[in-house]
Amino acid sequence: MQFFDLHCDTLYKAATEGKTLDEPHYEVSFSKGNSSFTKWRECTAIWIPDNMNILEMRTLFEGACGVLRDESKRLSVPVNDLNARKNSFILTVENGALIGDDITYIRTLKEAGVKMLTLTWNAENSIGGGADTQGVGLKPFGKLCVKTLESEGIIIDVSHASDRLFWDVAEIANKPFVASHSNSRSVCNHRRNLTVEQFEYISKIGGLVGLNFHVDFLNNNACEALADDILKHAYHFLSLGGENTLAIGSDFDGAAMPKSLESIEKIENLYNLFIKHGFNEQVVQKIMYYNAHNFFSKF
Length: 299
Hints:
The strands form 2 sheets. The protein has a 5-stranded parallel β-sheet. The chain has a 3-stranded parallel β-sheet with strand order 6-7-8. The mean pLDDT is 98. The protein contains 11 helices and 8 strands. Helix 3 links the parallel strand 2 and strand 3. 50% of the residues are buried. By secondary structure, the protein is of the alpha/beta class. It has helices at 10-17, 30-36, 54-75, 105-112, 140-152, 163-172, 196-204, 215-218, 227-239, 267-276, 281-296, and strands spanning 2-8, 39-47, 87-94, 116-118, 155-157, 178-179, 208-211, 246-248. Helix content is 40%, strand content 13%. The longest helix has 22 residues, at 54-75.
């Protein structure tokens, strides 16, 4: 089985807890992934909390990059190698707040190997509004960031964006962008999820949307969320023409998971659930691996 995961918080966790990327109690670990998949690509996000100051943010970023560099060598796993025979880590950043007001820092991100950047987390930052600041769109500096990120070949991620910021990005972006870990607002009415119009737009421009396993985004009653709810989101997105758009963005090690999907070694349960409920096997393989691989290969 092949698996491409657009989002986990394991690198952030390892960096802040002084641990490795092979901790048995983490939801994502090298050993679990290596034994579960014939080919595995894991986007390892450095989450930047909104309440940090710019120095703290950049210190966290630099430290996490060091952890990934050391772990890549120790585990013999390449970074940002889509053609790796078996496994590869992909470096991403969750929250463009660490750019501050310094546009040149985007080059620093590029040189560090950042492949994808989530423009905001939940709060407002120098780029624009997050999910908790729905009235705030893309700021003038944010527009410059979008253009610069595109010119540097860093994928723009609009998960956590306000609705207004989403459409502001859509208006000026020249390249397809992604929502790395966002579900359907029609299925679960949460501001972090995508509207029909947003998903259709991402699909139209050749972008990518990763199904999120976090219970709050799966079911309007989070305590009742099950892995089956992921299929409801997938079915809805596929009904909107998302066969080549849909992927997985688990949110492992950063969110509450439903039963039977408590860690990456349980991904086979989701695959089997898709097949059991009549999803076309070729479409399931696209969701699990090929759509993300094909998209990232363009950057």
